[in-house]
Amino acid sequence: MASLILKTLQKTTRLRSTILMVMFLPGILLCPLNAQDASFSLYFAHFGAGPVGGLELITELTLINALTHEVEGVEVEFFKQDGTPNSVKIEGETTDKLTLSVDAESGRRLVVESADGILRVGWIRVSSPVALGGVLQF
Description:
- By secondary structure, the chain is mainly β.
- Helices cover 8% and strands 50% of the residues.
- The strands form two sheets. Strands 1, 2, 3, 5, 8 and 10 form a six-stranded antiparallel sheet that branches.
- A hairpin with a 2-residue loop joins β6 and β7 (93-95).
């Protein structure tokens, strides 16, 4: 699994001067015991997107699937610090929630940008039918 994570990071990480914050299976990974139809959640305590001191802050979220089959029905939700939905721009679309899939033995990278040109901060919840890994970079 470690080699898969390194390969995924090598594919998705660009050389640049950034603040790097890595959360692999971060702080809280909720894994229900004894549940066939269980869902798993990753929580990322902080994200930021928008202008800061003349620079543009973006957040890159990489989801990692170490399984030998594609994982569908992965939900990614963005929240303000008070828990209300937080609209951001991902792949040119403005949203506070999206559903996606992650290929087998691979990763899926999302670049989170400000939807309206102002600084957006908050937290992210990723819900999946199986356990995924995750890396967050600012």
